[in-house]
Amino acid sequence: MSISHAPPGAPKSVPQGSPPPTDDDRAAATPLHADTAPELVPLVPASSRRARIPRWMRRTSGPLLLLALWQVLSSTGLLTADVLASPGRIAQVAGDLVADGSLPAAMGTSLRRVALGLLVGTVAGTGLALLSGLFRIGEDLVDAPVQMLRTVPFVGLIPLFIIWFGIGEAPKVAIIALGVTFPLYLNVYAGIRGVDAQLVEAGESLGLGRWGLVRHVVLPGALPGAMTGLRYSLGIAWLALVFAEQVNADAGIGFLMVQARDFLRTDVIVVCLIVYAFLGLLADFIVRSLERLLLQWRPTFTGR
């Protein structure tokens, strides 16, 4: 019996009774050569294809459109000056306040009050959260009183602070510190109690003691919550400053607003509100930059 060998590349004979070969079978049986290899098409992310307009332009388009609408309504008389001054008038008044030095001096006074209140509130809120989050006895002693005080509007405590601390800088700093303490406490406490238990077990298996776990596992795990609480606290600090500076104040942005209210100067009031907004935005930008620096190890979703 002789065996015949088919030359390479020749089609194989199909036994009788077998179904005819399909296109997939022919493609599998055909050898691939370098000149017939498929071309590679580069893949472009969908986010890159959509981002044809710079992001900074998209982010500023909304405020610019609102500003243009405001100017149009003021120019046509639909928005009178006694209700709300025009953007041009507000820019002129802001230049005058900067030129005579009243606005920079008020900004310096307000920034000093916010910084002191934020420092006191951060120390108090973080310390209470560490005591309550790390120790069960601390939670039993601290958490319930803090939750009770948190429900009390801090603005309602202004008369009591005036009685306790007088009419100087102390009650203003105290009301800011009180407003900062509670959101920072809640977020740091939640961050500590939200640390993955498997990470704690892994640290124990590596031989870390109690304070080693706190330093290398618990505190880094609670850092994202602490940064979120700090951002909330900054927003409430500026809100508390608005109330604090309108009570027996002789300097600061709030003092300028009180004077403008007495003389029905809506342009000065709007200038002060814009300064409040920009200072708060600047503080939030600083915290977000610090967050990106400290939380480089945490991958996050940046949007699509």
Offer a concise description of the structure.
The chain has helices spanning 23-29, 46-50, 55-75, 87-99, 102-134, 136-150, 158-165, 170-193, 197-205, 210-244, 253-262, 266-294. The protein is mainly α.
Q: Can you walk through the features of this model?
A:
The protein is mostly helical. The protein has twelve helices and no strands. Helix 5 (102-134) runs parallel beside helix 8, helix 5 packs antiparallel against helix 10 and helix 7 packs across helix 8. The longest helix has 35 residues, at 210-244. Mean pLDDT is 77; it is low at 1-6.
Lay out the secondary structure.
Blueprint (H helix, E strand, L loop, with lengths): L22 H7 L16 H5 L4 H21 L11 H13 L2 H33 L1 H15 L7 H8 L4 H24 L3 H9 L4 H35 L8 H10 L3 H29 L10
Radius of gyration: 33 Å
- Count of separate DSSP helical elements: 12
What percentage of the residues does DSSP assign to strands (E)? under 5%
Task: Briefly note the structural class of the backbone.
Answer: mainly alpha
Order of secondary-structure elements = HHHHHHHHHHHH
Keyword list:
12 helices; 304 residues
